Amino acid sequence: MQQNSNSTCDNEKNGGCGHEGNPGIEKLTGNEFSNIRNVIAVMSGKGGVGKSSITSILACEYRKKGHSVGVLDADITGPSLPKMFGLKSGVRSNGSALFPSISNSGIRVMSLNLLTANEDDPVIWRGPVISGTVKQFWTDVAWGDLDCLFVDLPPGTGDVPLTVMQSLPLNGLIVVSSPQDLAVMIVSKAIKMAQMMNIPILGLVENMSGAVCPHCGEHFELFGPSRGEEIAQKFQIPYIGGLPVDPNFSKLCDQGKIEEYESNLFANFIPENMTQ
Amino acid sequence: MQQNSNSTCDNEKNGGCGHEGNPGIEKLTGNEFSNIRNVIAVMSGKGGVGKSSITSILACEYRKKGHSVGVLDADITGPSLPKMFGLKSGVRSNGSALFPSISNSGIRVMSLNLLTANEDDPVIWRGPVISGTVKQFWTDVAWGDLDCLFVDLPPGTGDVPLTVMQSLPLNGLIVVSSPQDLAVMIVSKAIKMAQMMNIPILGLVENMSGAVCPHCGEHFELFGPSRGEEIAQKFQIPYIGGLPVDPNFSKLCDQGKIEEYESNLFANFIPENMTQ
């Protein structure tokens, strides 16, 4: 899908694809209601750097270019995507598969928060159950025909990132960082994990690259100087760009109107002629 | 330890205490090298709202008042405490217990990042192994004589928060939130989980309560208006206070000098006459 990804994934059946990053571990097959051509996961290692924000922006930008897009919320115990897209619970089923909720612009979303009675009900589950749910979001959801499915991973390098890297036919990962040294250290863990699992890293995005003061209009470094290009260079991965903190963005997230946010962060990342 | 906590924990032996939040599940006993009088966990549900920052500030404020303090980093796959305290790997052992690293001001810290060869080596473990490590940080670490041990939990409501709530003799939890609606929703999950597990919530802190522009000095709402008092009221828990984003704080964290940060966020929370 991108010049730096040497894996393509055109299998028209079952959302499966030919490349196997982890020999010996079976990739999951999809179902008869899904035909997913590309799968990209968004990862960070560190919490709160904005994985869900970046996943949503990426999905919206793809969608605006006319592609069919889905988002799988793999953050089972801290799901935030439905709220950003203004989606409430009420997932339908045909008896053999669950149907994702559909956003205003037509993005298909599946998240645990669409399945709980109240959006703030906690899911107190241990790792194997959580991983099993993520797998079911692949095997038991009727995604339909998708150019691209984005997978929003939870923080850390534990069960869910491991399951997604082992079991889903990923084209690759997008890594999200923030300018703090601390975030850099933990993002490095995520990059090393992906490399150990032979999952290509498609690019790095730096979120919270400073802020713009609404009073004087000056840009300042909120969490320290930008480090995105430096990390990208260190690990020899493409640098996609940086996104400053924008109170308007937070507001749109809280209102469930993330699709109204104007962004072209991924202008050079999204291929003009993606496999349709 | 606080007027709102109806559980006290004065057992002088083994770090154990009398109250059992979850009947039927055995609390872990400590070891002969530890005598821990109070245990407080810091939780959020959502990642990146600043649990580790708040845990560190709390530990430093306790320490400055002359108490003996330890910090158990239960964020196994995304540990950030050693970096904040300027501690590197090199934990010693006496053959039957591990000794925590000791910060400049004398805070004892145990974290997985003190046990890995490089601070950015990823720990690609599944839940049961991660939970087992957290338990070992209780049973196999020679904490010595501590007035208070603070436990920095990872994001989410999965394995580790569950293990800590079930297995450690917690006095209670401090919950960390941020002003976003999204964070409020996920923090509510954490609060509900604690309530379901009968763990007292000692108070709520709102992190990232706006920012101060270094150019014009104006305070502005970075992630939306403050919501801390509202959540505290909704769940009937004490509101400890809010902490604005401060580039100086991030800088001290990155330099490993968090102990130099001046704060009195917990001035009203830390009891004057704590059990010594």
TrEMBL record, chains A, B:
<dbReference type="InterPro" id="IPR044304">
    <property type="entry name" value="NUBPL-like"/>
</dbReference>
<keyword id="KW-0378">Hydrolase</keyword>
<comment type="function">
    <text>Binds and transfers iron-sulfur (Fe-S) clusters to target apoproteins. Can hydrolyze ATP.</text>
</comment>
<dbReference type="GO" id="GO:0016226">
    <property type="term" value="P:iron-sulfur cluster assembly"/>
</dbReference>
<comment type="subunit">
    <text>Homodimer.</text>
</comment>
<dbReference type="InterPro" id="IPR033756">
    <property type="entry name" value="YlxH/NBP35"/>
</dbReference>
<dbReference type="InterPro" id="IPR019591">
    <property type="entry name" value="Mrp/NBP35_ATP-bd"/>
</dbReference>
<protein>
    <recommendedName>
        <fullName>Iron-sulfur cluster carrier protein</fullName>
    </recommendedName>
</protein>
<comment type="similarity">
    <text>Belongs to the Mrp/NBP35 ATP-binding proteins family.</text>
</comment>
<dbReference type="Pfam" id="PF10609">
    <property type="entry name" value="ParA"/>
</dbReference>
<dbReference type="GO" id="GO:0005524">
    <property type="term" value="F:ATP binding"/>
</dbReference>
<keyword id="KW-0547">Nucleotide-binding</keyword>
<keyword id="KW-0411">Iron-sulfur</keyword>
<feature type="region of interest" description="Disordered">
    <location>
        <begin position="1"/>
        <end position="23"/>
    </location>
</feature>
<keyword id="KW-0408">Iron</keyword>
<feature type="binding site">
    <location>
        <begin position="45"/>
        <end position="52"/>
    </location>
    <ligand>
        <name>ATP</name>
    </ligand>
</feature>
<dbReference type="GO" id="GO:0016887">
    <property type="term" value="F:ATP hydrolysis activity"/>
</dbReference>
<keyword id="KW-0479">Metal-binding</keyword>
<dbReference type="GO" id="GO:0046872">
    <property type="term" value="F:metal ion binding"/>
</dbReference>
<dbReference type="GO" id="GO:0140663">
    <property type="term" value="F:ATP-dependent FeS chaperone activity"/>
</dbReference>
<dbReference type="GO" id="GO:0051539">
    <property type="term" value="F:4 iron, 4 sulfur cluster binding"/>
</dbReference>
<dbReference type="InterPro" id="IPR027417">
    <property type="entry name" value="P-loop_NTPase"/>
</dbReference>
<keyword id="KW-0067">ATP-binding</keyword>
